Amino acid sequence: xxxxxxxxxxxxxxxxxxxxxxxxxxxxxxxxxxxxxxxxxxxxxxxxxxxxxxxxxxxxxxxxxxxxxxxxxxxxxxxxxxxxxxxxxxxxxxxxxxxxxxxxxxxxxxxxxxxxxxxxxxxxxxxxxxxxxxxxxxxxxxxxxxxxxxxxxxxxxxxxxxxxxxxxxxxxxxxxxxxxxxxxxxxxxxxxxxxxxxxxxxxxxxxxxxxxxxxxxxxxxxxxxxxxxxxxxxx
Length: 235
Fold this sequence. Notes:
40% helix; alpha/beta; 4-stranded antiparallel sheet; Rossmann fold; Arc Repressor Mutant, subunit A; 8 helices; disordered N terminus; 2 domains
């Protein structure tokens, strides 16, 4: 796994035989900066897991030739510790429990949104890096979740409680685009009101503070605005 201040270029092995699901997962992950290797059968997935290093494996349980649980079992017996997220049918509790006992790190029931899969991958990554419990750090930016302070190199940035919470939410999923509705719900706890501009005002205040940190460098650009959609944190 790369350190949190390196460029995020994570490789995912997707083992999924349903073409439509594979297409939207591949497209969704690639749009968010992941490199995706796709296999359609359990045998192919096992060989790919053994042959090349991946940061994550997304593994369907129901596969032709060899099911996902047997693939997972052999992966772990071979000492391959790559995090695995299982894809299961919504009502197959037995598969989910068996997968967790065999060493899966998480599971998702079909159908699901790519955004949720990305969030699960980020949670696993942060847990492995061991840094996200107390600190989020990208390059010279350091967000201390205990002291609730943002620093850039040795300089501290004064943030209000709301500004800190918004920045934390963006930094927890670097590169992921969040709509204003999502930010309102998770940071303010509001249902979406299309007339409110509280998100834009809060982001503007944060960007203004970042812009003053380093002469000749527009650090405010780390909070990227996508016109008509929302915002994302760019490491």
